[in-house]
Amino acid sequence: MPFYRDAVHPEEPMTALPLTLTPLDLLALALLCLSWLGVTRVIEHPPRRRASVSVLMKTYRRDWMRQFVHRDPRIFDGNILASLREGTSFFASACMIAIGGGLALIGNTDPLAGIARDLEAAEIPALLWRLKILLVLLFVANAFLKFVWAHRLFGYCAIMMAAVPNDPRLPETEARALAAAEVNIQAARNFNIGLRAVYFALGALGWLAGPWGLIAGTAIVTAMTLRREFASGSRRAILRDLGERRP
Prior knowledge:
mainly alpha; 2% strand; disordered N terminus; 2 strands; 247 residues
């Protein structure tokens, strides 16, 4: 059975690892995982009569490529795609910095031990601090991988757009444009998943305040994410514009 030594009082005898996680901790972790998977499922596959913003935007991305075929010159479309790639690049870089900072904190939990003293939580071992930081890093690492793949997919989309013939009368013109739209949709899907991973990483930080902090962080992030996708002003504006065309 593995053991840990208390980070705040290293001179005290070691205690068995299973004592570090309470049933409430396990319940909070299960709630976090179920919320993460459930939110992703509901947003990507919403009820037919209540589409999410992410699903509604697919129509605009396909319309964009249809308009792109008839636009001359196409500099405007290139600038839009470049801005999308810059956004994914920014978030990927931010995740790399966060991962580096988290790994450094795992290697030296003294700053967290100081926080524990301030909160009178000196009984929390260093190993449990590392576990809490690792949970946050798992979400951040997932976000990083999604942002990197989204960046690459936007690059594929740019190449496919460049391969669309300038003559809209050619039979392959619209087919290639719609194929580029589907790649663009997949890139946006990965970008959105990465953003949600960042949101849940912030919610997972609540575990540093204990299991109730994790439960509260999970509830806040879940409610905020669902509101933005299903009850936001932007969604109402999109629905007004789409009208009967909504999926």
